[in-house]
Q: What sequence folds into this?
């Protein structure tokens, strides 16, 4: 009996973790729409993945949404991000790197640029 309650508690905590991750990812994705430098698509993909595991009703709503649905469905079916999304994301990354180099110290800008380059690499070479 104690084993069943432990397993149930683990499932509850895992479910809460997936729900929290889905909400935070969705929030960061929404912020990324208006804030250059913060990627949107990876957070939407993460929100869809975590919602599928811990919050199926949210996963359905995300797939049915006119904005997030096509991104999630295309990723699930083909493991690809649309080319126009990649181009738009690249443009925003470039703008954010330029702004960082103009506003922050060279060390901070260089660190930020490394993360942006990693995001660029993942965007263009990991996804189709």
A:
């Amino acid at each position: 009996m104690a084993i069943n309650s432990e397993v149930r508690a683990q499932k509850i905590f895992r479910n809460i973790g997936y729900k929290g991750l889905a909400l935070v990812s969705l929030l960061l994705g929404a912020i990324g729409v208006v804030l250059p430098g913060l990627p949107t698509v990876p957070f939407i993909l993460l929100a869809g993945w975590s919602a599928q595991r811990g919050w199926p009703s949210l996963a359905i709503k995300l797939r049915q949404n006119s904005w997030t649905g096509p991104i999630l469905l295309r990723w699930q079916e083909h493991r690809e991000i649309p080319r126009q999304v990649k181009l738009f994301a690249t443009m925003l990354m470039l703008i954010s790197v330029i702004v960082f180099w103009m506003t922050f110290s060279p060390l901070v800008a260089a660190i930020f640029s490394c993360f942006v380059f990693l995001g660029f690499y993942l965007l263009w070479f990991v996804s189709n």
Q: What stands out?
A: The chain has a mean pLDDT of 86. The helical segments are 2-34, 41-54, 56-64, 68-78, 83-103, 106-126. The two ends are 48 Å apart (CA to CA). The chain is about 85% helix and 0% strand.
